[in-house]
Specification:
alpha/beta, two-stranded antiparallel sheet, single chain, seven-stranded mixed beta sheet, 29% helix, 11 strands
Length: 232
Amino acid sequence: MSNRARCWAVVPAAGIGQRMAGDVPKQYRQIAGRSILEHSLRALLGCDRIEGICVALHPRDEHAAQIALLADERIITTRGAAERSGSVLAGLKALAAADEDDWVLVHDAARPCLRSEDVTRLIEQVLVARCGGILAQSVVDTVKRADADGCVVETLNRQRLWRAQTPQMFRLGELRAALEAAEAQMTAITDEASAMEQAGHPVLIVPCGGHNLKVTVPSDLALAGFYLGAHD
């Protein structure tokens, strides 16, 4: 595959962070002097392979205007949806300069500890493999499967278990078609890889460390701050 393959990014940021305490959506919470969204965008902007980024915002977003980084010439914004998949679809459609065969990296707004070198490694390995892929962390804990009463049914073999992270990188046209098919079938989609899997596409795993955590609950803020401070 040509080294000139074009890559874009979509960041769904229309969520309201129901599990995060406070009145401010979690992507706008401050860590190490910047909002979580800014940290996430800076990691993508730090990779020169990315042509541009579309950020999908809540229709009534009251905080984006305060984020100076959103004025970067490589960033555009669009109106997001109630569900993640809808926001991603909106972002894909807003990338007017992108072609169907271009690659798109979808990244969680709430993963501020992503490093530019992780993005570069994902891009390089996906282009070599010629199929879409995701960053993921290997499962190191013993994993149990429980029944409806909360009792252990079995212990799973963790050797082939991975915790999906983002970015998740796929061809723009194939990802859009997969998301639209899942939407038409009213299938619950928790990440882009699950839509691609359902559509029959292979998904490559690119290992990444535990630093690329998703800020979900208040206790994650301190850990994210530690990772960001250690990397500076």
